[in-house]
Design brief:
The protein contains two helices and three strands, in the order E-H-H-E-E. The protein has one domain. A three-stranded antiparallel sheet has the order 1-3-2, covered by helices on one side. It is of the alpha+beta class.
Length: 67
């Protein structure tokens, strides 16, 4: 398993700007809740799933099954 940033630098830039504006909370969510703090609970749960491969909710991180 490997976690990497989205290879699209423009998406990474936009999401990081949003995270900065929202104090580290997912810029794609309307509510400020502990489970939305980046790296969000949803993606941490997806990381634990041995079958999951894909992006986090906001497309900042990607979990690949291969190293």
């Amino acid at each position: 398993m490997k976690i990497t940033l989205n290879p699209d630098e423009e998406i990474v830039k936009i999401i990081r700007e949003g995270l900065e504006k929202k104090g580290g909370y997912c810029p794609c969510r309307t509510e400020i809740k502990p489970e939305y703090k980046c790296m969000c609970q949803e993606f941490r749960d997806q990381i634990k799933d041995p079958e999951y491969e894909g992006f986090c909710h906001c497309m900042l991180y990607y979990k690949s099954l291969e190293d």
